Amino acid sequence: MSRTLKASGRRALLALPAAALLALIPTTATAYPNPGTVSGSTVVHDPTMIRDASGRYLLYATGGGMSSKTSTNRVTFTAGADAFAAKPGWWSTYSSVPEAWAPDISYHGGKYLMYYSVSSFGSQKSAIGLAGSSTGLPGSWSDYGVVYTSSTSSDYNAIDPNLFVDDDGKWWLSFGSWWTGIKMIRIDPSTGKQLSSHTTRYSLASRPSGTKAVEAPFIVKRGGYYYLFASYDTCCAGTGSTYKVKVGRSTGITGPYTDKSGVALMNNGGTPVLESHGNVIGPGGQSIMPDADGDLLVYHYYDGADNGTPKLGINLLNWSSGWPVAY
Question: Which end of the chain has the lower number of beta carbons within 10 A, N or C?
């Protein structure tokens, strides 16, 4: 069941008892849902979203100095200014354009934090940067510089960062794609950068011989398990994209992560969460956002009914089976 109901249908659902409503939620992905209804400014790539204290949704995405959108109801989105009015000078070391990719927004210690990546497409010469803001609004971000880098000789790529804060207060940053796959490092909460006393780089997920992508990691903890979401296969090819969202879980933050069938994500495993269907082509670049009505899967897809234009997708996740199911 997707969130594409008419207003009258939504009101009818809200009037149902909780038990009856839960009975309508699928526990297995027999068919993938269409994205929930969104309108306004919906062209987007690699979206990350958070809700501020006023209830407004702040969305940032790949492009320029980090493109932004806002919404008051999670349906109608309005385009805003870039996060950075002036792009930090160090970006030009890693990208000739230059522009920022795949932001990750969170709120800690009274401040919004945004990790992001700067790179040229297909290059391992990449960097993850960090910025902070007291409001999370465009133009308010202060750049804190480079967090982590990769070079043309690296067997990983320093892009697509995601911050996870554990129950015991430890900070972790997952990132990466292609080559030897998804990596993770410890972060110092006082600086937002790598913890100098713990420089181990962990491996979380990989594809055979680095010939296919596993990227855009995002980690959440639910029911005692850590769940690692990632995007697999080909992005950024319009209607030719084969992107898909898969997940694995682990009892430890650094893994090993396995899928529903017990296959390790380090050995090409991954349980599908969302794949191409109908005019929804190549969904991926996902993030997970807790909201009042549950966890949201926020992603982009290529619209087969609109010449492959990248669009914003939002679906809820049901966890009742122990594995996330989009609806």
Answer: N
46 catalytic residue (yes or no): yes
Catalytic residue among 82, 215, 275, 295: 215
pTM as predicted = 0.90
The question of whether 215 is a catalytic residue gets the answer: yes
Binned at pLDDT 50, 70 and 90, residue 30 comes out as low
Tell me the C-alpha distance between 265 and 257, whole Å.
Answer: 6
**Catalytic residue of the set 46, 82, 104, 160:** 46
C-alpha–C-alpha distance, residues 219 and 287, integer Å: 9
Q: Are 81 and 65 in contact (CB under 8 A)?
A: no
pLDDT tens track for 300-320: 999 999 999 999 999 999 999
CA dihedral 327, 215, 174, 204 (to 10 degrees): 100
Do 130 and 114 meet the contact criterion of CB atoms below 8 Å apart?
A: yes
Token look-up 């993850």 returns 128
